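Hi F.,

I've been meaning to write this up properly since the lab meeting, where we talked about keeping a consistent format for the predictions we share between groups. The idea is simple: the sequence comes first, exactly as it goes in, then the C-alpha cells exactly as they come out, then a line or two of notes. No screenshots and no reformatting. I'm using this chain as the first example so we have something concrete to point to.
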Amino acid sequence: MKTYKRYQRREFLKLASGTAATFLLGPASAESNRQTSPNIVLIVVDDWAHMDLGIAGHPLLKTPNLDRLARDGVRFTRAFTPNPICTPSRAALLTGQDCWTNGCWFFGMPIKSESTHFSELLSDAGYETFYTGKWHNDGLPSQRGFTAGK
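Output, unedited:
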C-alpha cells in the first residue's frame, strides 16, 4: 500500500503558493507552461462524506476510478469548508478566502470584484481551464477565468 506525506494546512498553503509563483514567474510564455506544467483535476461534490470512497475504506461503495486518481494524485483527508452553504463554500474554494473576506456569506451573494479566482491565476499561467457542473456563484465561469466549459 502506497503511503502519502501528510501536510499541515500551513505547509500545504506554502507549497501551493510556491507552485503558483512558479507558474506565474516561471517560463516566459504560456505555450512553454502548457508543455511543462502538470495537469490539475479538481473534483468538487455535494453531500459526499469524507469516507464515501473505496480508498477511504467504505465497505460497500466501489469507486475504482476515483480511487486511482486519489492514489496517483493528492487526496485531502483533513479539509473543511469555512461555510457549509453551497455558494459561499464554492466562493471560498475559488478565491482561497473565507466568506468574510470574499464577501459571499450566503446564497446569491456576489464575490467581491477584487478577489482573484484560482482559475484566473491558472489561465494567466497558460492553463486551459474547464468548468462543468453547478456554478451557483455570480457571473459565469467564463467571466471568472475558465477558458472552456459545458
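Notes:
The CA atoms of residues 30 and 126 lie 4 Å apart.
The two ends are 37 Å apart (CA to CA).

If this format works for you, I'll send the rest the same way.

G.
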